[in-house]
Amino acid sequence: AAGECFTRALRQRPRGPEPLIGLGRAYLAAGNIPKAAAAAQVVTERAPTHAAGHVFHAQVLRRLWRLDDAHAAASRAVELCPDDPDALHTLGSMAALLLRMDEAEDALRRALELRPEAGTVWCELGHVLARKGRSDDAREAFDKSLELDPDDLVARWGHYRAVRPAHADEHSLARERERALPELRALADRVELHTPAQILRAEAAIQD
């Protein structure tokens, strides 16, 4: 039923699949994976050359832990639009989940060349570099991410883990942990409050 609804919405919006992708992203953020998956399927079937549709499809497949399929969808998006930073970021993320760290680093760095202000991508690059054992480079990436977004808790935690071997002061590390935990809880509360509004806006966009 959800797929039929999305198909009707897409037929009524001949200008492109962006509103449907927006609705699918809102469902994905809310954890409604079946509706997000239905949206992704309709978009990729009816707009197969739309790179953003394949990016969104990859993100849904990731949530379903179909990682090889997610990587294939992200690769298709990059094939369609090699200079799309979102496609490159998604490809880097999927490659990292598959432990293809060289491919992940290459894709994330290409994304940052196109969008150097993307703090989230710097953060993911930091995790990839840390996994490759390049602690100094990882710290630099996390520092850049925190410079762009001081409230990025994932980057702060990654930075903590990256600098941990270089510090002997356990008290400072304990303070860092204590600081991160309540902020993370507050962030989770804000996301839960915002998600219904995101869905309402997205639903209105495809019904206009």
H-E string: HHHHHHHHHHH
Question: What's the total count of β strands?
Answer: 0
Helix content, binned percent: over 70%
Determine the number of helices (DSSP H or I, runs of at least 4 residues).
11
Biggest pleated-sheet summary: none
Strand-residue fraction? under 5%
User: End-to-end span in angstroms?
Assistant: 20 Å
Question: Which overall shape is indicated by the principal axes computed on the Cα atoms?
Answer: globular
Low-confidence stretches: 190-203
What number is the mean pLDDT? 78
Rg from Cα: 19 Å
Summing up helix and strand content along with how strands pair, one would put the structural category as mainly alpha
Set out the fold topology.
Blueprint: H1 2-12, H2 18-30, H3 33-46, H4 51-63, H5 67-80, H6 85-97, H7 101-114, H8 119-131, H9 135-148, H10 153-163, H11 170-207
Helix pairs in contact: 1-3, 2-3, 2-4, 2-11, 3-4, 4-5, 4-6, 5-6, 6-7, 7-8, 8-9, 8-10, 9-10, 10-11
Overview of this structure, please?
The chain has 208 residues and is mainly alpha-helical. The protein contains eleven helices and no strands. The radius of gyration is 19 Å and the shape is globular. The two termini are 20 Å apart. About 7% of the residues have low confidence.
Concise summary:
By secondary structure, this protein is mainly α. It contains eleven helices and no strands.
Keywords, please?
208 residues; 11 helices; 81% helix; mainly alpha
